[in-house]
């Protein structure tokens, strides 16, 4: 099975994720976060997740907004440097905590049982569920009998 373009398979879902991203950006601005800090968080999360596409895009965005190459160069080890403010350090630590959830061992699933559309649908379900999981875990939602 070839790689599935999730946005092309389910464009409405992709568009909604874009709207969610835009709302998160608006919320960050409304919360008073510096746009450079938002880019640092995006870059750091992308580093943790190993997303080359997003690393390139958000590194470029950060540079365009005035971020320094020195700070971007040491972002992967931000806790060891003196480049970041207390607020930036707290935001980066929180972003890492939200991102680094323990995951089970990888398993082979591509046995031809799913069509491209089904692969896309399951992938989107997992992506959205990850978002909801992160909201619930980060928000410390109670889980009581």
Topology:
Blueprint: H1 6-9, H2 11-30, H3 35-49, H4 52-64, H5 69-74, H6 86-99, H7 116-139
Helix pairs in contact: 3-4, 3-6
Protein name: Carboxymuconolactone decarboxylase family protein
Organism: Streptomyces decoyicus
InterPro entries: AhpD-like, AhpD_core, CMD-like
Structure description:
There is one protein chain. The chain has 145 residues and is an all-alpha fold. The protein folds into 2 domains: 23-102, AhpD-like, CATH 1.20.1290.10; 109-145. 66% of the residues lie in helices and 0% in strands. It is built from 7 helices and no strands. The protein has helices at residues 6-9, 11-30, 35-49, 52-64, 69-74, 86-99, 116-139. Helix 3 runs antiparallel to helix 4 (52-64) and helix 3 packs parallel to helix 6 (86-99). The radius of gyration is 17 Å and the shape is globular.
Architecture (CATH level 2) name of the largest domain: Up-down Bundle
- Helix share, percent: 55-70%
Specify the CATH class of the largest domain: Mainly Alpha
Percent strand? under 5%
* Total number of strands: 0
Rg computed from alpha carbons, rounded to a whole number of angstroms? 17 Å
Mean pLDDT: 80
Counting helices, strands and paired strands, the structural category is mainly alpha
Q: What is the CATH homologous superfamily assignment of the largest domain?
A: AhpD-like
CATH topology of the largest domain: AhpD-like
Q: What best-fitting shape do the alpha-carbon axes yield?
A: globular
Through-space gap between termini: 43 Å
């Amino acid at each position: 099975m070839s790689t599935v373009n999730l946005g092309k398979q389910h464009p409405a879902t992709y568009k909604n994720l874009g709207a969610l991203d835009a709302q998160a950006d608006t919320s960050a601005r409304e919360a008073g976060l510096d746009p450079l800090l938002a880019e640092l968080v995006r870059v750091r999360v992308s580093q943790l997740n190993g997303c080359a596409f997003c690393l390139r895009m958000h590194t470029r965005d950060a540079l365009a907004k005035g971020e320094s190459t020195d700070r971007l160069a040491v972002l992967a080890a931000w806790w060891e440097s003196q480049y970041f403010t207390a607020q930036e350090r707290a935001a980066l630590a929180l972003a890492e905590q939200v991102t680094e959830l323990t995951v089970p061992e990888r398993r082979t699933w591509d046995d031809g049982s799913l069509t491209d559309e089904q692969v896309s649908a399951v992938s989107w379900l997992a992506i959205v569920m990850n978002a909801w999981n992160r909201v619930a875990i980060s928000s410390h939602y109670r889980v009581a009998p």
